[in-house]
Amino acid sequence: MAPAPRISAKDLIGPVAIFFGTLLLVSAIALPLYYTDTLKKTPMDLDLTSVAASQPQQGVSGSDGQPAKIFNSCSVSEPRAEVSDARLTQQQRVIVVDPADADIATFQAGNSIRIDSYTNGDETVTPSTIGGEDGCMTSLLTATRDLVTTNRETAEPQISGGGQSEVKVDASDNSVSLPDRTGLQYRFPFGVEKSDKYQYFDLTTRTTNPLTYVDDSTEIHGVKTLHFTQEVPEVDLSTLVDANDQQLAGTSLDQTAGWYGGFPGSRNSDRLPASLVQSSTRDLYVDPVSGTILNEQQHIRQSYKLNVSEDSPQEMLDYRLTALDVVFSYDQDTQEALASDAKNLSDPITLWGRWIPIVIGIVGVFLLAVGIWLLFRGGGQPKPAAAADGPSEPEEPEEPQYSGRQYVPQQYNEPQQYEQPYDPDQTRQIPVVKDDGDGFTDWSPPRGS
User: Does the N terminus or the C terminus of the chain have fewer Cβ atoms within 10 A?
Assistant: First the structure.
């Protein structure tokens, strides 16, 4: 019986190449779809610090050293209101705190605006932390602490299910709950689109307003950004409350008409209440891969508006006493640090979502092509292997060939033996036949005959 054919290592090269080629192609497809999604979440160790300085602006008087305008609160006790030129700094730090898990992250943000210097008449003043003689002008202009729980994938607020949304606006430990908050804040989700679909929350006015996509022409420290802009309409800040349901401090005035500067048809001694209103314009420059905001330019406009009836003189209706007019923009150190953070978040996504799938996809196609070629080249059937050393079944002898009257055996495994049959009667013994190879036979009589 013939030995069964055996598969050699050479015969396995084609199928193995096809297997690994297919595996690599599947991996090239799966990596961008599944693995990179695990990287596109708000990092749990997020810690962003930004410093924004007041910027010069056209149409607003003041030197480059004092580019902003603020209401001099010390003038409340003076005969006339006073607005001072100032240099301001806005600081913000955002970290992740509890509650936080695989799906949510809670941002805690400390925000402040500080007065570096301001003009008081012809004098430039650097305020102290405790203010002047009556504490009316301190270095701290505003300060808030914000807490909001967000979805780690969408970066949208996720208040239900144990999330938090509150803001602390004064020195007490109490906070104001903001349960209806919507819109992005502090960062965008991964994979930002060139779209007008995004909303952004403004903490000061506690309102959410749409963002408008502008362009992608701005590059910040090697990172190409998407530019969005937002208009926050005027909001009366005196309608907002603190943790005790009281009007926010500093959002209203009650002064005489003469203190404001006087109005036609009004006596200077008439009391005129006013409320603080704010509107702003915000420009955000965002890394589209990581959703990191690399620069924020915000033009804040706060002013006191008289609370008068609609039939009052137009001068009263149009009157605005500037409380704050400033353009903030992140300084260069902040932009550089945020660009570095953005690269640290986006590089793994680019690597595993683009370059590694491309490389292993190319290798997979190559292996698949080689495997198919080897199979077709070998006819798709494995070659029989050589018989191994050791005993094997003997092959069956071929049919004998005849030449004339001569019997010619083809092959013998052992010498042919002829034995005489036993016969006690030697006279009946069969004679031995001899063949001399000449085609004739001779015989000889048996022994004893």
Answer: N
- 7 inside domain: no
pLDDT mean over 218-233: 97
Contact 289, 191 (CB under 8 A): yes
Check: CB of residue 263 under 8 Å from CB of residue 315. Answer: yes
In a domain, 354, yes or no: no
User: Degrees (nearest 5) of the Cα angle 326, 329, 333?
Assistant: 140
CA distance 178 to 147: 10
Helix 356-377 × helix 9-30 angle, to 10°: 150
3-class state of residue 191 by DSSP:
coil
Cα–Cα distance, 115 to 137 (Å, whole number):
9
Q: Is the pLDDT of residue 108 over 60?
A: yes
How far apart (Å, rounded) are the C-alpha atoms in residues 280 and 230?
8
d(CA 41, CA 105): 9
Please list, residue by residue across 176-208, b when 16 or more beta carbons sit within 10 angstroms of its beta carbon and e when fewer do: bebeebebbbbbbbbebeeeeebebbbbbbbeb
Residue 436, domain member (yes or no) = no
Q: Quote the CA–CA distance of 137 and 130 in Å, as a whole number.
A: 8
Please give the pLDDT value at position 438.
52
Flag whether pLDDT at 265 surpasses 90. no
Tokens at 173, concatenated? 């430990």
pLDDT value of residue 412: 47
- Determine, yes or no, domain membership for 90: yes
DSSP 306-373: E---TTS-HHHHH-EEEEEEEEEEE-HHHHHHHHHHHHHHHHHHHIIIIIHHHHHHHHHHHHHHHHHH
For 393-417, what is each residue's pLDDT tens digit?
A: 555 555 555 444 555 555 545 545 5
The neighbour count for residue 274, using CB atoms within 10 Å, is 23
Its domain, for residue 170, covers 46-330
Residue 357, Cβ density class (10 Å: 0-12 exposed, 13-18 middle, ≥19 buried): buried
Which residue has 């589209």 as its token pair?
A: 288
pLDDT at 378 > cutoff 70: no
Number of folded domains that form the chain: 1
pLDDT, tens digit, 9 for 90 and up, residues 57-86: 876 666 678 999 999 999 999 999 999 999
- Return the bridge partners of 256, or none: 271
